[in-house]
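Slide 14.
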Amino acid sequence: MSGAPGQEMPFLDHLEELRKRLFWIAGAVVLGVVVAFALLSKLDIIRLLERPILPLLHGQKLIYTHPGTSFHILLNASLVLGIILASPIIVAQLWGFLAPALYSHEKRVVVPVVLSMAALFLAGVSLSYFVVLPLTLQFLMSIESTALTPMISATEYFDFAISMCLAFGLVFEVPIAILALTALGIITPQFLSKYRRHAVVVCLTAAAFITPGADPYSLFALAIPLYVLYEVSVFVAFFAYRKRQKRQKRAEAEELESEAPAKSAAVPRSLYVILVAALLIPGAHVVAQVPRVPDSRRAAPRQRPDSLRKDSTAADSARNKQLIKWLDADSVMKVLMARPGYSATRYQADQV
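Slide 15: predicted structure.
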């Protein structure tokens, strides 16, 4: 992704850049295979790879049934070693393509991650070659019958040994994969801890498919380290997840701090304009200093007529006599009204 910083390349330019990087990677692999073929021809790689099975052959040697067997074994070993030799160039080309799209904190972890990947791969290959492969061969060779004569083919043995070593090397990359998924926010340590029992089943199933032999030694020899690596991955993912949370909180705090001055800047600016206007306009200055006097011309609160008179019925009746037609008192009311101390009070509502 060559280009000026801060500029985005078109899609076709990305494809062109990727094509150039892939050509460099292919050339590095071919060159690594050629160098590995020359080295292995001098080192006699076949004798080195047959060491785990030599004690079990009882003085015999591996056999071959095709003239090109030695070349086939040497070519397979050269391919694996050539990729390993070309891995620095492969990583450099991938880094050159992906680096412009990464943040600064992501770039800082690339070198430790690459070194960890190389160390874990070598650890897996070493465990397979020095521990698992001899135990597996010993178990398989112990199950023999007197009616059978062991004649181990060199092609089948080396394919078995190389595939097992590569399988262990790739399986040991599980912590790096889980760490990457945690850094991307796809999984969390709580998720990994919750499904521990499921991880045991997955490790056993993966070991059964990965190991080329059908013996329990190679199965458990891969399943146990695989589950241990899973637990290590959970432990590492916890720190990666916490670091990611801190980084997100820090980014949110910085964003809030950057937005706060923009919001508060308008208030001092408006106050400054009002202050300048008050100083430059004399009228505004005088009005600001003169206290407000209550208006004496304002009318006093109007009092209800009912509160001034003891009986407002007469006034109300006089005002509304055109609208009100009172009924005549009956004989009972006339007798009561004739008695001393009684008076008539009548009320009318505004609405019926």
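Speaker note: The longest helix spans residues 216-264.
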